Amino acid sequence: QRLQCTEDVVLLSCWQGLLSQLTGETAVTTTHVHNGRKYDELADAFGLFARSLPLGVTFDEGMTFAALVQDVNERVTEGGQWQEYFVPDELALGRCYGGGIGYEYELRPHSFAGPDVRLEIVAQQVECQSETVKLQCVRADGELTATVDYDPTVYESTWMQIVAEQMKEIVDSAVEKGEHAPISDLNMVSETQRQVNLIESNRTSKEYPNSKSIHELIEEQVARTPEQIALVSGIEQFNYRELNERANQLAHHLRSLGVGPEVFVAVYMDRSVDMVVSLLAVLKAGGAYVPLDTTYPYERLSFMIADAQVPVLLTQESMMARLPEHEAKVIYVDSEWSTVATQSSANPVRNVDADNAAYVIYTSGSTGMPKGVVVPHKGLVNYLSWCTETYRVAEGVGALVHSPLGFDLTVTSIFSPLLAGKSLFLIPEEDGIDGLTTALRNGRNFSLLKVTPSHLEMLNQMLTGDELRGRVNALIIGGEALSGETVAFWREHAPETRIINEYGPTETVVGCCVYEIPDGDTNAGPVPIGRPIANTNIYLLDKNLRPVATGVPGELYIGGDGLARGYLAQPQITAERFIPHPFSEKAGERIYRTGDMARYRDNGEIEYLGRVDHQVKVRGFRVELGEIEAVLRQHPQINEVVVMTREEVLGDRRIVAYVVSPEGADVSVNDIRRFLSVKLPEYMMPSSFVTLSALPLTPNGKVDREALPAPGLGRAGMEEAYVAPRTVLEEAVARIWAETIGIELLGVHDNFFELGGHSLLATQVISRIREEFEVELPVRMMFEGMTVAEMAAAIVSREMHPGQSEKIAQTMKAVEEMSEGEFVQMLELKRESHDIQRLS
Fold first, then answer.
1. How far is CA 124 from CA 37, 38, 45, 48, 168, in A?
2. DSSP label of 182
3. CA dist 24 to 21, 338, 481, 548, Å?
4. For 667, which of 198, 362, 637, 758 could close a Cys bridge (C-beta 3.0–4.6 Å)?
5. Which of 556, 497, 549, 553 lies closest to 532 in space, CA to CA?
6. Would you say residue 762 has pLDDT above 90?
């Protein structure tokens, strides 16, 4: 009454407000049914004259309910004036306008009477023609009834029940808060659902040894199984007693140099026994380790060492030449071991508490420099205690350690087996994916294997179905969004392997939310991230920090014992991301704002949806596109730059850099690559560079990302002169490379990665070489800069065995003397011949 509009308009406004919240869209269009009796002479005529018209609303920032109702009322009135221009044959237009979402309000008398007939409605069935969902509101006999009609081939009944409940809640909220309340304040979450999302789903409290540090728990395991093999690295093996004694000796040496609580010690070494000993030694000394990835460029390493202000750096003598200049005290763990070995082998006395730092891992930063995440002992112990039990690590032989130390995925692989008395199998850094593949082929009953979806895609290319069975008890996948298609190969060929999707930013100690794919589940599409782990709280909130309803996208916030302390020496960014806990009365408690979007499924599981910003994940590594942009702007011949990801082919996401140079400047792609290679790690290097005269802008002056052209993969901008394939074999290899990358022209001396290739495509090339030539080439050869010509030569050298070279030479001589027709005929007659197949 106060808004001077009909009940029809108020309900339609609530319906469209609900749709806006459900979809996250600011523009919503539904079909709206008009009675069709616009003219007086039709008022008493029998028949269905109803017409459905599209009705769209745009939700402005801060829009009140009154403003929404006024807008809808005007549009309904206008639609009524034009309704005769929409006829039933054109109802298919509803799909274009509203995506198949409809609304109808009916003011129904109990019965209809004519001169000689009386009609009474006993039941009514609505068939949605253009709509897949329709809200049907009926006012009859003093009661208002709302029904959600839906297409069961599109939506599940459980979802529609939730939508119906949400519609009731938003109407109640509008009545309670009044017409001047902002639309964003209208509540669609019932008190029951609020309790479930905030409290019931976060009942994760579980006891764990929070008064101890991780190295103390490992020392307890040493006492239980001193002779059990703890480390396997090539031909080297160390049992728990030997590992612990070596770590103790190094720990005492570190203490003599002043290492203790809140002292950061850098660890820069290849994956080896020395690396594991160093990690344990730093923790035993009371310090926090700072892992430095051996593949990082000079400038990045220099920044991290300076930023962490490390007084001590642990490395190996062979690594000395790779290190930048620094002021830290260097200990060469290998060559100086005779000095370290003079120290006591007894466990050092505890000198840390649960809140002291355990490690600092650097992640990509939008300012152009990485930022260090400080993780305390409490969070580390909570996660490892939970995962060691949940992943049943004690039931297998141990874990394969194959990922970089600077990637927190490695924390699970190293420490959880040591807590369970199992073995670590270290794969040498230089062996890469080939080493992991070989280890899986030759081993069985591994407790767990932790990989990213990108790792898994590569393994799917490298291994056969028979080589999966019985290898791994638990396959843990993290670091990126996971799809059912990626795990289908393992579900089919290794049904006994548990497959678990683990979600967690570095700021929440490795993992904070998990979902185990049920047996027999072969669903495609996104795999949920599940529910929070022990002593962890997860909230999906809107921009006003209010809980979102089931099915509604919200930003993911994390609380509990797994939170990092914050970012090293960056209080402002820490305060922005680690905010006061809005649902806790405990003083000083915080939650972490992830920047990830997610939603609750109808069963309470959480589904990851994407980012709210320009951060991306590449092969499991977090990449702030702003960091790449900041580094590119340092190039003297680049004025403007935009970096974004593109997915021209499903599942193949690539980083693309768009650059604008000063007029007349001559800057090549190779020059830009060389500039970036000394500042950024390999996983942050754009696959493609596009040079533009100017960046496209929107009317308000912002970069129009939608208008940026797709990159043209290929030889544009390359300095290497094009050389065409010279032999049949080079032509075959060039064809495989070109088809895999998606380009047409490819020379025999071109670099695979400069053409737009990446690690996953490299494994696909190796897989196709294996299929077509029955030759096994290591993937690492691709990363060593192998060209088409070199790969062709490698195929020949790999397939030769004593006596075969002469035989192939004789065959080639015979082929040279044949006509083309004779050659084809020979292939048809001898296509089963191994040598002829390879020559073809």
1. 20, 24, 20, 13, 22
2. B
3. 5, 64, 20, 11
4. 637
5. 556
6. no
Which single residue is written with the structure tokens 């297998």?
396
Residues 407, 408, 411, 414: what is their CA dihedral angle, to the nearest 10 degrees?
A: -10
- pLDDT per residue over 71-88, tens digit each? 999 999 988 888 877 654
Residue 323 contacts residue 301 (beta carbons within 8 Å): yes
DSSP-assigned states of every residue in 205-220: -----TTS-HHHHHHH
Tens of pLDDT along 699-737?
666 677 778 887 765 555 555 677 888 888 889 898 998
Higher-scoring residue by pLDDT: 674, 282: 282
Distance CA 684, CA 655 (A): 8
- Alpha carbon 465 to its chain centroid, in Å, reads 26
The answer to whether residue 801 scores a pLDDT higher than 80 is no
DSSP assignment string, 760-812: HHHHHHHHHHHHHH-----THHHHTT--HHHHHHHHHHHH--TTHHHHHHHHH
Q: Cα separation of 696 and 27, whole Å?
A: 24
How far is residue 6's CA from residue 69's CA, in Å, rounded to a whole number? Answer: 10
The answer to whether 482 touches 514, Cβ cutoff 8 Å, is: no
Whether pLDDT at 509 is above 60:
yes
Q: What is the mean pLDDT of the chain?
A: 86
End-to-end CA, the chain? 84
